[in-house]
Write a structure and sequence with these properties.
By secondary structure, this protein is an alpha/beta fold. It contains five helices and five strands; from the N terminus they run ααββββαβαα. α3 links the parallel β4 and β5. α1 crosses α2. The longest helix has 14 residues. The two termini are 25 Å apart.
């Protein structure tokens, strides 16, 4: 979001990004307290949470995904998150889970750093093209996500779909 005009233009052509922005805006704009953005990249969601104490985290190898270094982001080895248990009021994880070799351990670690009663907003692609190869491992159904999050101990799990079939088809045509 450092170049606002480019971000607006990208949302016009990248329908997947447009659905993410619309979805996130309604969920995180009112967040207060300490927020961990996992897989933060260039921290594009930071500006959507003006009242939050924002902390981004990403893997040391983020440059392999086209990300530059960012002062709002802590870099780590991709194993255990480098934060104490219950350290965050909210955890945000946008389009990251498909890049994680062991998603169950990763979700357990998200749960570990989240305070009791905190909230997790997690987005995953459904119909996205393969990206950031060779580190694009899987796609998740709403049923797997719901079952896994509940079995880990998350409560009040709500699964919402972003976009629709027409948006998915249009996005595929744009990519083509």
């Amino acid at each position: 979001t450092e170049n606002r005009l480019m971000f607006v233009l990208r949302r016009l052509v990248d329908l997947q990004l447009l659905t993410i922005v619309r979805f996130l805006h309604s969920k995180i704009v009112s967040w207060q307290g300490r927020v961990l953005d996992v897989g933060a990249g260039q921290a594009p969601w930071r500006d959507l949470m003006p009242g939050a104490d924002y902390v981004g985290v990403d893997v040391e190898s983020a440059c392999e995904f086209g990300m530059g270094r960012n002062p709002y982001v802590t870099y780590y080895d991709g194993r255990a998150l480098p934060f104490a248990d219950g350290n965050f009021d909210h955890v945000l994880c946008v389009e990251v889970l498909e890049h994680v070799p062991d998603p169950v351990s990763f979700l357990l670690d998200l749960k570990r750093v989240l305070r009791s009663g905190g909230s997790l907003v997690l987005t995953v692609p459904w119909s996205a093209r393969l990206h950031h190869l060779p580190h694009d491992y899987t796609r998740f159904t709403r049923y797997w996500l719901s079952d896994m999050l509940r079995s880990i101990g998350f409560t009040n799990v709500t699964i919402e779909e972003r976009g629709n079939d027409i948006a998915a088809i249009a996005n595929k045509l744009l990519v083509l």
